[in-house]
Recover the amino acids of this structure.
């Protein structure tokens, strides 16, 4: 009866032979605040600094603040129940829309709006940055040579998506 | 201007929000000391030169931090 | 040898070009002492000196300017004058100022090009239109002109705005003050300087005040880059440098110095006949008599004494310009610059006495000091001459926050965290 | 009449590719590689424009961005474009400006006759009478006369984009200096970006004829292109330098096509670790009577037209100079078979130049300058004066007054240029950290020294960027530099009758500068502002230094003391649209959509912009205009049940051992004792004691709270919480996270709301006992956790249903479907806002940061004993005054009239003027009372309950009678809430 509906459910698809932009739906996002020492026995080794992401047992672990982590797991994930009492847990699965952009021009398209260095040597796979795109906060995660996942606030997702597809218009079919 | 977020590194000023003079000590609550609060809230040294101040990486990690910036040149020094 | 300006004088001069025009103002050596000194040769300082001489007969007066007169904000603002204020105290002050503007060119015998071309403030929501209405009603109740405009009327008046479906915020209407407008900014400094000079005031440029000469609590003179100068009374009118100079007298004031940027495009034939302000984001624009679009937005958002701005702000202002007025897209920016602004917690200024006898303070003008220039000089001169507030600047005391008498005209609260 | 012609061969133009364009509607031809300027000259268009003030005939004067005269409207929508900066492309339409009916025959030229009246500053001296506001009469005429070109009101059809870039070394300018530095830095392995505003690399070398230079150039360019770590951007101008090594570049694209997403221009924000300025130098004119006639141009420009574009004067050129560089032009022309006469201000001319000149048969006039230039529409004859007085018939007069290094960018950071006597020009006054200069910009004008300079700067910059591997320097061609000698000549002592122009675009003459001097406008900035010198589209690139030199002479002071005016970005005109990029129109600001947006749309919502949000304003079922629809929606809630989207509320997760303490501090009322499972209304103040925001907070668990804020203040409050926790109360163990996007919310309101909930959540116990007013209940539906808060904004029995955002749409539909028998319908923002007025709830219009707790009638909720943010300053004298304007209800007493928001309130007997006693904040039609009611602030507040007042709305000439009443128009006892 209740079904999940993405913020981009009615967004116009983007098609191109060199670039894909779309939503990667179906993940869970848990924000955990607390000391890495206390959390890592459950999650696996946590990244040492903000901006690094590691993969552990099918989950992506990101350090998003001095003592704050994001655990991105499968849509249904029971890790919440296993985390220690003293960790402060905030489920955020619905708060972010994940937009994927992949293809040779992906870095160029992102650089049109994100004030970061998208050179291959500077923004490497496995790193992420929390920054601004189109006046909204986004987390940009590099997950491959030319593949990025963008976590946009759900209520801004349509705007961010439209902005991106507009920026990618020159590569559209 | 580029601002060094202690967590995310150098970023453009556009990602931040300025939070005012960080050298001022916030008075205690509950003392009823109106004068202390007035001076804290309404008066500024506003120096032409080094200034300790708060910034929040509002489009990034959302952390507040202190830095010293020279208001005559906008040069940013160490974190105090 | 004052030579009045007029069309006739110009014609005569054209016929005998070898008799040069006299200097607009002289540049005397500073005397060792004056009855009164005004620090700061901006609009406010020069106006103050003029009215000290004109209204109060105080002519043994010097204006000390560290650079050239008009080098501060009077020479770098977007020149908007208006009196659409709704808080008791502000309304009367700014209307008095507008009235003074109306006769200023005549009074100074210097054409300041006071252009009553009208200012339209555009509302982007029905609720915003209501708050504009409140302002307009107060204006009308105080004998100030104001008209409410619905969307259709705005479309007729300003046909070049974006009314299409592409507009992010539709325009619901607006309010117009026909008497509002623009003034040739530099001319204000020069006109007041020339008129004050004619009355005997010394205008001393390249003279930076570096300290005060104190007799106990009392200020009795200033140290300057051109030597010590004593004075019976001293007025500070240094705008963005207010804290800096006040500190020399041991005063700490409710002011933080921020940079505000301004922009001008290449000159084009008349396209925009009004001053336009927008309710979506702080943005204002007019076309100068020379033809350039002069516009601006918010302060950059952090304190600085550098007269140059940050690029992200330049972009947000350009975004406003093109989004509201598509005609701006192809026009090319000629120049942009910054001015350092004396921002106050409630957005309203200070004119009044200080804790130090004989020392008077004028500052905290935020975005709005240009339009205030005549009234500011008028009331500050009164305060200096009589050691008491004029009824029009009574609300502008330095200690108003202690009493909880904020004059928060725009309801923004403490700007440090908000802009 | 014409002064120029195109040679049959030579130049860098591509004669295979002809290009057609129009000039004032007439078709003309040129070649690829031409600029509009060269094409016009090649077509014999010597007179191209009219001057700004006097409408004097003008021609193209330069070959670069410094062009003051040759401005055109391009393609009908782009005014004031210097022809020298426009690449000739097929179909280009150029239109002349500022002349009527045509540049050839311009009636406005009558201005010239009145010229003595238009002396500098004339408008400050006149147009003041006869009335106070007389300027309003004159201004339209002045405005129409001013403003060079015409703008277009049409929407710009082109597309502009922005981009961010980073690199190790940025090189601005691709002359020999720039090519050298870029290559040296590139060889070190650094990421190098080389930008050049021209479409070709080479700078001054592009105007050379020497094969060695061209060999050198192509060699370096080839190597640069081969380096993967070097990015070359031509047609790209460095427009401005900003703090911390941000350089803003504007790139112009050839194949732009908005429909296919190809921008016309891209504005690049580039941050570089090190920057090399290799911006070269611009030649300056000489000042003499009638030096503005068409056919008078810069000597280096004439050389560029000759060597790069194969354009020559018809027969004879006269060249006037005060330095050696103009001889290059002279020799090249002579070698091309053009007769050349040379006038040199200097008495002593280097002998090698003299002998070469003699060899080429040039006429030489040392110690000689120009007394006058004749020719109505182009130069025909020139009078020489000085050691020689002669009259020379010629087609073209080329001038060189020396060279001004392009110090603009280095000066943008606030570093003032300094005067260098050796070259009689200003050079950079130093460099910021990691900035370097190379080549002519530093005052070095010889090729060999430029290369040497470039080698050093390139290595230094690479090192500064962290690449200190010694790099092989770039080889020179082993030529010998000739010493640069100049004897500055700022202006003639007398100018006779002819106007001697200093600023061509702003029509500022020597006489104007003298006038400014007479009147005391002697500071360079006063000079500029009084005469408008240097304020045109060229920003005085050719005029400023001459004017400063002249003024310094008049003041009898060294130029170094006079200084320059401030250099400001942009370096050249920069379209406002290019700065804005795609962030315009609908993309101006992001819009924020509720998780229920699609559902709202499906149910016929009309949306309204509220800040960044798009909110459902009213629904189609209730009507087609907001004025009537909201009333039906209100009735629905008062009599049955409605559902509204409240997802925009700010929501904050507050967790941690000290959560209760934290909330206790930020709210005026206490939260420590709030039982788990219960909600409480709270108000917070700013430090100044003024109300910041209100909302409800629910205790989820002992150390876990769920707080809501108003929609408008959500961001502020969040940042404020973070500020307190991260900087001030770092000992508190509390973590805050925004849940605004995580949770959607819907209000289910009305007497039948409980029944509706029961239908929606059949397994939950939503009875009054289990879920009393201010209670909280977590329920599960299909395994989804849903939070029901029994809160009411409308004053009716009502609930807030909070649900994880992605389930919101289907839950909304579920509720509407199962509660259909109860008549449930959605209601929108207008009704929400109106229902709360009936109940007397304050909202945004009352919480406007001017009001205190007491003003809003909320003083009672503040803890007497506890401390909280804002407590101290809340008690300041004026904030406690008994006659403050405070919250009241207002009832309209004249049934056939209307209450209006923004009305000013007066007591019945008051004179209707001044500031009144208060004002109306929010108005609605009350469906309960069947009349207009309002909330407002009134002097003394409810002390005046029952009194008659006047609501004045002079903007519509209205005054209506009303009465002060309690703001709780309905259900004062709260029976409905608690039902
Ligand atoms: C970009 C911008 C746009 C603006 N737009 C508008 C607008 O449209 N409408 C409006 O009403 N207002 C506007 N303002 C505000 C307005 O310009 C100022 O509030 C007003 O000009 C300040 O008063 P002033 O003219 O006396 O200041 P200034 O002209 O700044 O005068 C102060 C003078 O004091 C001198 N000084 C400083 N320190 C010393 C010292 N130690 N010794 C001697 N002299 C000293 C300075 O050199 C300066 O000349 C704007 C401001 C800026 C920056
Ligand atoms: N006395 C003389 O004979 C004399 C005088 C001046 C120059 N020169 C010659 O000129 C050359 C000087 O070399 P150089 O490399 O220093 O100067 P250059 O003039 O050859 O090159 C400078 C380049 O910078 C570009 N440029 C300037 N500002 C720019 C900006 N903001 N954005 C993008 N591009 C910009 C220009 O278009 C030009 O191509 C030498 O060959 C020298 O001999 C000779
Ligand atoms: C209303 C107004 C109009 C201006 N118009 C022009 C203009 O047409 N051309 C120009 O070069 N500068 C113009 N300026 C900017 C000035 O040149 C100058 O940048 C500004 O006064 C700040 O001074 P600064 O740049 O010397 O610091 C204008 C400034 C103002 C305030
Ligand atoms: Zn950060």
């Amino acid at each position: 009866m209740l079904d999940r509906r993405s913020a981009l459910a009615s967004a116009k698809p983007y098609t191109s032979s060199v670039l894909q932009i779309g939503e990667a739906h179906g993940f869970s996002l848990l924000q955990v605040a607390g000391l890495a020492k206390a959390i890592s026995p459950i999650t696996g080794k946590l990244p040492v600094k903000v901006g690094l992401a590691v993969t552990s047992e099918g989950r992506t672990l990101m350090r998003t603040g001095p003592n704050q982590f994001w655990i991105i797991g499968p849509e249904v994930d029971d890790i919440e129940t296993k985390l220690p009492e003293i960790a402060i847990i905030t489920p955020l699965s619905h708060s972010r829309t994940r937009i994927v952009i992949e293809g040779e021009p992906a870095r160029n398209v992102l650089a049109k709006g994100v004030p970061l260095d998208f050179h291959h040597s500077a923004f490497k796979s496995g790193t992420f940055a929390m920054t601004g795109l189109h006046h909204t906060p986004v987390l940009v995660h590099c997950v491959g040579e030319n593949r990025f996942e963008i976590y946009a606030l759900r209520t801004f997702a349509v705007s961010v998506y439209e902005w991106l597809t507009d920026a990618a218009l020159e590569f559209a079919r | 201007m580029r601002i060094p977020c202690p967590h995310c590194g150098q970023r453009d000023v556009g990602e931040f929000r300025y939070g005012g003079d960080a050298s001022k000590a916030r008075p205690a609550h509950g003392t009823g000391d109106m004068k202390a609060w007035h001076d804290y809230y309404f008066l500024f040294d506003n120096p032409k030169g080094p200034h300790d101040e708060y910034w929040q990486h509002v489009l990034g990690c959302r952390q507040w931090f202190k830095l010293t910036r020279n208001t005559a040149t906008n040069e940013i020094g160490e974190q105090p | 040898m004052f030579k009045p300006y007029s069309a006739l004088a110009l014609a005569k001069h054209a016929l005998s070009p070898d008799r040069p025009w006299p200097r607009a103002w002289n540049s005397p050596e500073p005397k060792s002492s004056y009855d009164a000194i005004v620090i700061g040769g901006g609009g406010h300082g020069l106006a103050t000196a003029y009215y000290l001489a004109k209204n109060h007969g105080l002519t043994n007066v010097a204006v000390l300017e560290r650079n050239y007169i008009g080098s501060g904000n009077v020479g770098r603002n977007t020149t908007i004058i208006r009196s659409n204020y709704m808080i008791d105290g502000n309304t009367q002050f700014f209307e008095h100022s507008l009235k003074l503007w109306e006769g200023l060119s005549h009074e100074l015998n210097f054409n300041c090009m006071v252009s009553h071309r009208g200012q339209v403030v555009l509302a982007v929501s029905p609720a915003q239109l209501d708050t504009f209405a409140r302002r307009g009603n107060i204006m009308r109740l105080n004998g100030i002109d104001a008209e409410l405009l619905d969307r259709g009327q705005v479309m007729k008046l300003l046909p070049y705005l974006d009314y299409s479906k592409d507009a992010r915020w539709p325009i619901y209407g607006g309010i117009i003050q026909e008497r509002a407008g623009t003034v040739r900014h530099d001319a204000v400094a020069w006109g007041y300087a020339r008129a004050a000079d004619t009355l005997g005031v010394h205008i001393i440029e390249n003279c930076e005040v570096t300290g005060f000469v104190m007799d106990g609590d009392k200020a009795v003179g200033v140290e300057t880059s051109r030597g010590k100068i004593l004075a019976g009374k001293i007025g500070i009118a240094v705008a963005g440098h207010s804290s800096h100079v006040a500190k020399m007298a041991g005063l700490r004031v409710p002011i933080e110095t921020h940079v505000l940027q301004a922009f001008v495009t290449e000159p084009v034939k008349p396209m925009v006949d009004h001053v336009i302000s927008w309710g979506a984001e702080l943005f204002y624009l007019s076309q100068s008599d020379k033809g350039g679009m002069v516009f601006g937005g918010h302060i950059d958002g952090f304190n600085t004494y550098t007269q140059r701005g940050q690029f992200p702000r330049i972009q947000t202002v350009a975004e406003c310009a093109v989004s509201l007025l598509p005609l701006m897209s192809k026009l090319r920016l000629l120049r942009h610059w910054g001015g350092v602004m004396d921002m106050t917690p409630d957005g309203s200024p200070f004119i009044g006495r200080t804790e130090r006898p004989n020392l008077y303070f004028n500052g905290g003008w935020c975005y709005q000091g240009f339009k205030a220039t005549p009234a500011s000089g008028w009331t500050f001169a009164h305060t200096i001459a009589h050691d008491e507030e004029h009824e029009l600047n009574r609300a502008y005391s330095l200690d108003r926050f202690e009493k909880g008498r904020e004059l928060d005209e725009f309801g923004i609260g403490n700007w440090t965290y908000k802009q | 009449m014409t002064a120029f012609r195109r040679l049959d061969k030579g130049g860098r133009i591509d004669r295979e590719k002809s290009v057609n364009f129009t000039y004032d509607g007439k078709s003309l031809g040129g070649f690829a590689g031409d600029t509009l300027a060269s094409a016009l000259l090649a077509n014999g268009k010597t007179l191209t424009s009219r001057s700004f003030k006097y409408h004097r005939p003008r021609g193209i004067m330069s070959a670069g961005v410094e062009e003051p005269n040759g401005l055109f409207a391009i393609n009908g929508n782009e005014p004031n474009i210097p022809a020298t900066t426009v690449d000739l492309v097929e179909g280009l339409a150029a239109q002349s400006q500022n002349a009527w009916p045509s540049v050839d025959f311009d009636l406005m030229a009558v201005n010239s006759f009145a010229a003595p009246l238009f002396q500098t500053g004339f408008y400050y001296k006149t147009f003041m009478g006869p009335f106070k506001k007389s300027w309003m009469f004159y201004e339209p005429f002045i405005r129409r006369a001013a403003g060079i070109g015409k703008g277009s009101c049409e929407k710009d059809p082109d597309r502009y984009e922005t981009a961010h870039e980073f690199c190790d070394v940025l090189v601005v300018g691709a002359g020999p200096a720039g090519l050298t530095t870029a290559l040296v830095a590139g060889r070190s392995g650094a990421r190098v970006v080389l930008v050049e505003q021209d479409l070709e690399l080479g700078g001054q070398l592009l105007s050379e004829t020497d094969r060695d230079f061209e060999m050198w150039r192509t060699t370096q360019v080839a190597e640069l292109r081969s380096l993967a770590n070097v990015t070359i951007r031509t047609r790209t101008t460095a427009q401005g330098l900003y703090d911390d090594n941000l350089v803003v570049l504007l790139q112009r694209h050839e194949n732009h096509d908005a429909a296919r997403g190809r921008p016309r221009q891209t504005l690049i924000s580039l941050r570089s670790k090190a920057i090399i300025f290799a911006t070269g130098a611009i030649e300056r004119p000489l000042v003499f009577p009638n030096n503005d006639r068409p056919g008078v141009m810069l000597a280096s420009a004439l050389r560029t037209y000759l060597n790069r574009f194969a354009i020559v004067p018809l027969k004879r050129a006269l060249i006037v100079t005060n330095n050696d560089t103009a001889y290059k032009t002279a020799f090249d022309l002579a070698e091309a078979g053009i007769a050349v006469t040379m006038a040199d201000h200097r008495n002593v001319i280097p002998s090698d130049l003299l002998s070469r000149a003699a060899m080429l048969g040039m006429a030489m006039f040392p110690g000689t300058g120009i007394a006058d230039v004749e020719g109505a529409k182009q130069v025909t004859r020139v009078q020489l004066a000085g050691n020689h007085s002669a009259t020379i018939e010629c087609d073209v007069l080329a001038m060189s007054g020396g060279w001004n290094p392009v110090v603009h960018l280095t000066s943008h950071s606030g570093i003032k240029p300094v005067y260098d006597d050796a070259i009689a020009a200003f050079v950079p006054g130093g460099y910021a950290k990691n900035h370097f200069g190379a080549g002519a910009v530093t005052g070095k004008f010889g090729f060999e020294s430029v290369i040497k300079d470039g080698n050093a700067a390139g290595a230094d910059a690479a090192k500064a960027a962290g690449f200190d591997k010694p790099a092989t320097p770039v080889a020179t061609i082993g030529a010998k530099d000739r010493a640069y000698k100049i004897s500055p000549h700022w202006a003639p002592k007398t100018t006779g009758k002819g106007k001697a122009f200093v600023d061509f675009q702003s029509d500022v003459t020597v006489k104007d500068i003298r006038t400014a001097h007479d009147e005391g406008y002697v500071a360079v900035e006063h000079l500029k502002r009084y005469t408008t010198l240097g304020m045109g589209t060229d920003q005085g690139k050719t005029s400023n230094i001459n004017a400063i030199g002249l003024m310094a002479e008049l003041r009898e002071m060294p130029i170094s003391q006079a200084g320059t005016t401030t250099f400001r970005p942009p370096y050249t005109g920069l379209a406002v649209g290019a700065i804005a990029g795609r962030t315009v129109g609908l993309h101006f600001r992001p819009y924020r959509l509720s998780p229920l947006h699609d559902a709202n749309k499906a149910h016929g919502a009309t949306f309204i912009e509220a800040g960044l949000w798009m909110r459902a304003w009213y629904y189609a079922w209730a009507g087609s205009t907001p004025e009537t629809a909201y009333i039906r929606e209100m009735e629905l809630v008062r009599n049955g049940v409605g559902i509204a989207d409240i997802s925009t509320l700010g929501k904050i997760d507050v967790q941690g051992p000290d959560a209760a303490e934290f909330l206790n501090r930020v709210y005026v009322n206490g939260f420590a004792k709030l039982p788990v499972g219960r909600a409480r209304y709270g108000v917070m103040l700013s430090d100044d004691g003024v109300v910041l925001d209100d909302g409800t907070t629910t205790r989820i668990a002992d150390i876990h709270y769920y707080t809501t804020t108003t929609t408008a203040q959500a961001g502020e409050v969040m940042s404020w919480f973070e500020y307190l926790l991260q900087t001030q109360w770092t000992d508190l163990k509390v973590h805050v996270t925004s849940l605004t996007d995580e949770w959607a919310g819907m209000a289910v309101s009305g007497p039948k709301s409980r029944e509706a909930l029961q239908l929606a959540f059949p397994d939950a116990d939503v009875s009054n006992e289990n879920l009393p007013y201010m209670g909280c209940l977590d329920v599960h539906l299909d395994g989804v956790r849903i939070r029901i808060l029994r809160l009411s904004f409308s004053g009716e029995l009502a609930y807030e249903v909070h649900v994880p955002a992605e389930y919101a749409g289907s839950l909304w539909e579920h509720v509407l479907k199962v509660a259909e028998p109860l008549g449930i319908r959605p209601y929108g923002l207008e009704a929400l806002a109106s229902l709360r007025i009936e109940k007397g709830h304050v909202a945004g219009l009352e919480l406007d940061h001017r009001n205190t707790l007491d003003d809003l009638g909320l003083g009672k909720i503040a803890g007497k004993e506890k401390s909280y943010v804002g407590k101290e300053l809340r008690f300041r004298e004026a904030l406690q005054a008994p006659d403050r304007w405070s919250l009241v209800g207002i009832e309209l007493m004249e049934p056939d009239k209307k209450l209006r928001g923004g009305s000013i309130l007066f007591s019945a007997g008051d004179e209707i003027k001044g500031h009144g006693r208060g004002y109306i904040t929010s108005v609605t039609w009350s469906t309960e009372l069947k009349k207009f009611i309002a909330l407002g602030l009134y002097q003394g507040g409810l002390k005046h309950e029952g009194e008659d007042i006047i609501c004045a709305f002079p903007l519509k000439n209205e005054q209506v009678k009303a009465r002060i009443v309690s703001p709780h128009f309905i259900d004062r006892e709260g029976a409905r809430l608690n039902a």
The mean pLDDT of chain A is 96. The first helix of chain A runs from residue 36 to 43. The beta strands of chain A are 19-23, 27-33, 53-56, 59-65, 68-74, 88-91, 96-103, 128-133, 136-144, 147-153.
